[in-house]
Amino acid sequence: MFNIEEFDIKLDTEIIGRNFVYCDEVESTNDLLLKSKDFNQHGAVLLAEYQTHGKGRKNREWISNSGQNLTFSILLKQNYPEKKINLINLLSSLAVAQALENLYQLNVELKWPNDVLVNKKKIAGILLESTSKGKKIEKLVVGVGINVNQPNFPGKFEIQPTSIRKEFKSIVSRERLLSEFLNLFEYLLDTALEKPDKILNDWRERCKMIGEKVKIIQDKQTLIGVFDDIDDDGYLILKTADKVEKIHYGDVSLR
Ligand code: ATP
């Protein structure tokens, strides 16, 4: 059982998480927050102990034991321009990385655009989804799944999952982790408006693929080149044999 008081004591934000909804079971925290008319405030956070249809990108599944991990979504309603969305994607993974470093001294690696790895294994996943009115983004939700106290991950995965419990060798407080994450998330979100370079540099520091030869799969197309850098908006700059390309999406792996 998630202890809301324990979480609230350590929450140091102005807006993010001040409107907090706790559910036993939902289909998907992202879907509920995108659709809900009741929980419609900027910064609202919805945490569910279990998702019957937890999602990853391209309708891949997010599988997480009930009551052992963190699966939650944050609602943002600030009409961010399209370009800022990618930065929010990067800063969400950076906030997870910094929370894991601060609380458990884990050595975290970030994989473009938003995978969080420890010892080459996946410890968290992030999925941004939005609804639009005309050209304006009306609601943006940041869905986060962090493997916290789950002891093992049966099944087949492209990248092997791991949890804090497995890496830190101890069961940890989900309440403390959620408050730490939201504190960092709000700080980074504010920073993104004034000093986006700070976010980009902190993200770069944790990405081991920059400078390496990579393969990028985009729908039916495969691109091969050197992961040169991320640009000012956080898009991946790929140097292929004859040109430099800006990559907006795709699955990146080392060649
Ligand atoms: P990939 O991790 O293969 O690059 P992705 O970035 O699209 O994919 P997400 O959208 O974040 O990943 O999450 C979906 C993927 O994560 C699924 O394909 C599944 O293999 C994997 N996955 C599902 N549940 C977990 C979990 N609890 N821990 C780690 N990985 C998981």
Provide a descriptive summary of the structure in words.
The mean pLDDT is 96. This protein folds into two domains: 4-205, Bira Bifunctional Protein, Domain 2 (BirA Bifunctional Protein, domain 2); 213-254, Roll (SH3 type barrels). Strand 1, helix 2 and strand 2 form a beta-alpha-beta unit. Strands 1-2-3-7-6-5-4 form a seven-stranded mixed beta sheet, sandwiched between helices. It has a five-stranded antiparallel beta sheet with strand order 11-10-9-8-12, with no helix packed on it. The protein starts with a helix and ends with a strand. It is an alpha+beta fold and 255 residues long. It is built from six helices and twelve strands. It binds adenosine-5'-triphosphate.
Task: Please describe the topology of this protein.
Blueprint: H1 4-10, E1 20-26, H2 29-35, E2 45-51, E3 70-76, H3 82-104, E4 108-111, E5 115-118, E6 121-133, E7 136-146, H4 164-168, H5 174-194, H6 196-205, E8 213-218, E9 221-230, E10 236-239, E11 244-247, E12 251-254
Parallel strand pairs: 1-2
Antiparallel strand pairs: 2-3, 3-7, 4-5, 5-6, 6-7, 8-9, 8-12, 9-10, 10-11
The structure holds adenosine-5'-triphosphate.
Mean pLDDT: 96
Record field, number of beta strands: 12
Q: Into which percent range does the helicity of residues fall?
A: 25-40%
Strand content: 25-35%
- CATH level-3 fold name of the largest domain: BirA Bifunctional Protein, domain 2
Number of helices: 6
Largest sheet: 7 strands, mixed
- Spatial strand sequence of the major β-sheet: 1-2-3-7-6-5-4
User: Low-confidence spans: pLDDT under 50, at least 5 residues?
Assistant: none
Protein name: biotin--[biotin carboxyl-carrier protein] ligase
GO cellular component, one term: cytoplasm
GO molecular function: ATP binding; biotin--[biotin carboxyl-carrier protein] ligase activity
Keywords: ATP-binding, Biotin, Ligase, Nucleotide-binding
